Fold this protein.
Amino acid sequence: MKIILIGASGTIGRRIYETLSNKHEIVRASRSGGDVEVDIETAESIEQMYKSVSDVDAVICAAGGAKFGLFRDLTEDDFYLGIRSKMMGQVNLVRIGQNYVSDGGSFTLTTGVLADDPIAGSSAVTLLNAGLNGFVAAAAQELARGLRVNAVSPTIVEDSVAAYGDAFAGFDPAPMARVVNGYIRCLTGNFTGRVIRVY
Ligand SMILES: NC(=O)c1ccc[n+]([C@@H]2O[C@H](COP(=O)([O-])OP(=O)(O)OC[C@H]3O[C@@H](n4cnc5c(N)ncnc54)[C@H](OP(=O)(O)O)[C@@H]3O)[C@@H](O)[C@H]2O)c1
């Protein structure tokens, strides 16, 4: 398959790349470096990416920022940061991509455990992750040409424990191989509208 992997240089994306690049043609995408530059916060940039890469069978997104912080400290802009990036960025990858991805192709997005298990500081992130989980279920019903959309929802991943482990005290980190397997299931399975939880 020819797969656009957005966030290929990131903590999760680089593990997806390492595993999938043996079997598939992976086009690495992010704001800097990679094979194609894209900023998912901008619909025009996403459209440009799809125009520049032909015959795409699948899109995997492991990118999207959001503001973590105590609710009393979060500004409206802090919420919009994640809405523009993680939420609408991924929605637009599907909304625009449905016009470009090949028949029977798939979109795999990334949400996260905070949709189901909020913690102090997660109000903005929980909002986005839960919204995206709902979006996947709804959009799947309408995609044409056999296109599928799913999401992987990891808990904190092993490779991020050093960076964020303190905020996730008591959560069992997900081994990277299990996280990558979630993306492989979405890529190769026949299902649509599902959230694969890797908790
Ligand atoms: N790490 C975890 O434990 C964990 C757990 C659950 C869910 N998640 C979710 O998984 C996703 C990836 O997390 P991560 O920890 O792998 O992140 P990361 O290490 O910060 O990597 C992010 C990747 O996305 C790219 N990127 C960031 N903003 C972008 C944009 N606007 N347009 C295009 N590319 C962009 C980055 O490259 P450039 O900077 O070059 O653009 C990089 O390749 C996030 O949505 C995160 O919320 C992570």
User: Anything to note?
Assistant: The first helix runs from residue 11 to 20.
